[in-house]
Each structure stands twice: as C-alpha cells, then as structure tokens.
Description:
Number of domains: 1
Number of strands: 5
Number of helices: 2
Structural class: alpha+beta
Amino acid sequence: MNYSLTIKTSAVKALSQLPKQDYEKVRNAIQELAKAPRSSGCKKLKGRDGWRIRVGVYRVIYQIDDPNQSIRILNVGHRKNIYE
C-alpha cells in the first residue's frame, strides 16, 4: 500500500540546492517514504507535528495523513539548520 507524496515548494527549492550525490540519496529516501512512512529510523518530532528521517547529515521533515494515505514533505535541510 503506497502513500502519495506531496512536497512543499520550499522543500523542493532546498532539495534542488543540495550537492548532486546528496540530492540523489535524499530523493531516494523520500521515495521510500511512500512505501513505508514509519520505517526504522524515523522519529516523531517533539514540540510540533510531524516526523523526520535522517539521510546522512540531512533531515527530511514530513507529515503523515493516514486516512488519505498521503505524505507531505515539509522541509529538507542540514541537521544544523533544519529545526530552526
């Protein structure tokens, strides 16, 4: 059962600014979320709605909508800057 993926415009912009090798890793991780939104390694965020996965030094912040089987990518960025 695959979930549909939507990506905020700001996340698309952040993703496009990553180095090519990192871009490919993060893109593949996002595609895997459609198959398993709560895979091992994902964590529920504290203090705000959402989940995160780790891809090297980058983080992908997303929300899961189970009734509609959809995932919305909210933000992509370096671990130092992502939670600001």
